[in-house]
Design a protein that fits this description.
Layout: H1 3-13, H2 22-29, E1 34-39, E2 42-49, E3 52-60, H3 69-83, E4 88-94, H4 98-106, E5 110-119, E6 127-135
Parallel strand pairs: 3-4
Antiparallel strand pairs: 1-2, 2-3, 4-6, 5-6
């Protein structure tokens, strides 16, 4: 999946967000430790430093949601993180994103903090980000 396709999928998945463009994805993917896991109509982008991985973004095309695609991509992301030597993973998720929060809860992530007024939303107030953590066995 190339940066243009990633950006297009991201734009569909997060239409109300101030989003990332193809150049943003290109830049992140060029940084040391960055990796992308994808399946049909879904992706997860992360970055590893030392023995920690941050899940930067995860998206599923809205037309293909509720079919287990996000679960499969998240599992693949965790497997890739483990294969790279990660022992701990972190992510930030909007408190308002109930579907994502349910997915992460299902996958064993736990809340360890929050960032007030973190996410920009087009035409709306800034949203709280929940910081989640998962230790890899």
């Amino acid at each position: 999946m190339n940066p243009d396709r990633i950006a297009a999928l991201y734009a569909r998945a997060f239409a109300s967000s101030v989003g990332w463009g193809a150049e943003d994805f290109r830049a992140v993917l060029a940084t040391p430790g960055a990796f992308l896991v994808h399946g049909p109509h879904a992706f997860a982008l992360g970055r590893m430093a030392a023995d920690e991985v941050e899940l930067l973004l995860m998206a599923t095309d809205p037309a293909w949601r509720r079919q287990g695609r996000a679960q499969r991509v998240l599992r693949a992301f965790e497997d890739e993180a483990r294969a790279r030597g990660a022992v701990t993973m972190f992510l930030e998720v909007s408190k308002a994103n109930r579907a994502a929060r349910a997915l992460y809860h299902w996958a064993g992530w736990t809340e360890v903090g929050r960032r007030e007024n973190y996410y920009s939303v087009a035409g709306g107030p800034r949203e709280v980000a929940l910081v989640l953590r998962k230790d890899l066995p």
